[in-house]
Amino acid sequence: MYIKSKDNDKFKLTKSLLTTKYRNKEGKYIAEGQRTIELAIEYGASIEFVFVNERFYNDPSKGVLIASLKESTHVYILDDSLFRQVVTTENSQGILAVINKKKMDSEDFNKNKHKKIVVVDRVQDPGNMGTIIRTADAAGFDLIICIKGTVDYYNPKVVRSAMGSMFYMDMMSLDNEEARDLLKVNDIDIVSSYLDTENYYDKVDYKENTALVVGNEANGISDFWIRQSDVLVKIPMFGKAESLNVAVSSALLMYKILGR
Q1: Residues 203-232 pLDDT 10s
Q2: Which of 51, 68, 100 is the last residue of a domain?
């Protein structure tokens, strides 16, 4: 099917998913790029439908992927002028998927599975959020909890930065109290990244069940998480920089907690 009209329901739905409000309302999100969509297939993401532009559809090298997609979902050719309205990259590869969200909340917590956790406290930059998701996957963490006020992890830029880890990692969004209660009742040690402490991250013994809290780019973790933490840790600064980017510091801390 070739879609040329801006009044097409699937086009209007996809365009609406560029906003958090409609991603929440529809329970769907956008994933862009060939490799991202290949990983969505590999990890069993629930793909609602796929849009490709004419160039992608007519490229002989894409035939195997398109055939694979047609076996499990609907593939539509979207007019180039419309396609440009639903992508967030300047040089799009010409393919995007609309995917159903994974529904997960505190009731889905599994204490036998979720032992290494990242709590993301109001991180705002989509690139940072996507990198944290990707790093948590790479480091072998089990769960990401996003505190209300954190950038939507279904934002297209987050999905792109996560490079497929989006479809693999368990993630949920909770408020401060919900997250605190979930961690405490399951005897999870809360370790927070915080500059104003004497505890260096490489001098601490981490428990098997640990939640790492990382904070907002400008302000760090909130007072709430400072009070709730069992341990506050920092990474030493040997040069003039006051702190590291939150995605970089998260990576160092995650690998240290895992003993890797």
Answers
A1: 999 999 999 999 999 999 999 999 999 999
A2: 100
Strand order across the 143-147 sheet:
170-174, 143-147, 116-121, 210-215, 189-193, 231-233
Task: Indicate left, alpha or beta for 194 from its phi (over 0: left) and psi (-120 to 50: alpha).
Answer: beta
143 shares a domain with 15 = no
pLDDT at position 259 is 87
Work out the angle at residue 252's Cα, subtended by the Cα atoms of residues 214 and 156, and round it to the nearest 5 degrees: 60
Q: In angstroms, what CA-CA distances link 7 with 32, 82, 219?
A: 22, 11, 44
130 lies in the same domain as 18: no
In Å, what is the CA distance from 30 to each residue of 24, 25, 158, 185, 187? 12, 14, 10, 35, 36
The pTM assigned to this predicted structure is 0.96
d(CA 189, CA 228): 10
Q: What is the pLDDT of residues 140-175, one digit of tens each?
A: 999 999 999 999 999 999 999 999 999 999 999 999
Residue 72 sits in a domain whose CATH number is 3.30.1330.30
